[in-house]
Amino acid sequence: MDSIKPSVALPILAVSFMMTSVNAIAPSLATIQAAFPDIAPTTVQTLLTLPGLLVLPVAVLAGWLSDRVSKRVLAWVGLGLCAICGAAPTLSDSFAFIMVSRALLGVGQGIITPLGPGLIADYFDRDGIPLMMGLQNATNSLGGIVTTFAAGLLGVLGWRYSFLVYLLGIPLLLYSMLFLKPAPLRERSPGLSGQRASGSWNGLLLLIGAMFIFGLLVCPLYANIATVVKDAGVGDSATSGAIVMSVGIGTLLSSTLFARARRALGSFSLPAGILGMAAGYYSLSVAGGLALFFVGALLFGAGFGIVVPSALVKANDCAPRGNTSLAVALFMSGVNFGQFISPFAFARATSMVGLSSGRGVFYLSALLLAFCTVILALASAAGRRGRI
Question: What angle do CA 350, 352, 356 make, to 5 degrees?
């Protein structure tokens, strides 16, 4: 078994720290909307979701290139784009410029999305991979917590300052470039779980479709929390940042305990995670004070931290032989594309049912996730009976 040496693990984890930073500006969306009153709210919300649209094709391309070009170099290029293009809106009052910058941020995110797991597979054997994957998930969550909270604090000074949080990518890039040595020559790891993939594209495509729907239902929290907090009169962008940070804390805790939860819940781990997210959305939809906002965020994050690892394990199982990195890229692309479509889909859906406010979006999301919980629980029960 490879020992998890800090000198090897930390430079790889540095690349992963910014993987969830796209949502960092969520606490400042309300002030950005106020700065651009002529821009439709759904268009402003695409500042969160546009990067995800670019992640889709770029991640697939990066997954393909990672077998032909040094993963280290690709990861450094992606991290550099995240830092520079993420912070670029600080320099301009043009909404078009901000949109272009966010699109280029998506290119950077698309490059590093498949390379985090890919680097782990290159540097560690099948005994070291599961531990490193857990550390990477924890690093992703920690990065989301830090960047979101910092962006919320900076947003109090002005909406442009919230984008400065992406400059954190520069010291991370320099650290990785200085200390991430070339991978040792070894037989290529067959998969993220340490087991040879033997699935099919049909199963993987079905999972990607499911994750597209999941992305649709995840985005409303980040797109609407700043407006809901402002309308409720319970805080400013810093408060919104703290609430979104609580989502990351919930995710961090549940991801850390994921292996135990999966052993205890078995095939019901996925519906249990979805139920936690539904409970979180419902709490946010009825919250009148800060306490319930934070409880809802923690519940949502705890559910999220179970759903994503469960789905990643399934993606690894579905991946055709030798295509694990590409499978992960496609998997994450499904989530990101769903997030991009989400503001427009919910704008239409909520207008049809008369729930036009941010709280209404949260309530509708809770209902849809509860419905998904029932379907998945029934499917899990049927599958368990079929194995008896």
Answer: 35
Under a CB-based contact definition with an 8 Å cutoff, are residues 217 and 368 in contact?
yes
**What does pTM read for this prediction?**
0.71
Tokens encoding 11 = 């430079």
Determine the longest span between alpha carbons in the chain, in angstroms: 63
Give the amino acid at 355.
L
pLDDT at 355 over 50: yes
List C-alpha distances in Å: 7 to 3, 13, 176, 207.
Answer: 11, 11, 10, 36
Contact between 191 and 324 (Cβ < 8 Å)? yes
Quick one: residue 70, left, alpha or beta (phi over 0 = left, psi -120 to 50 = alpha)?
A: beta
Domains and CATH numbers, the chain: 6-387 (1.20.1250.20)
pLDDT digits (tens, 9 = 90+) for 306-353: 888 777 767 666 666 556 666 777 777 778 788 878 888 888 887 777
Query: Chain centroid to CA 175: how far?
Result: 23
The more confident residue out of 9 and 294 is 294
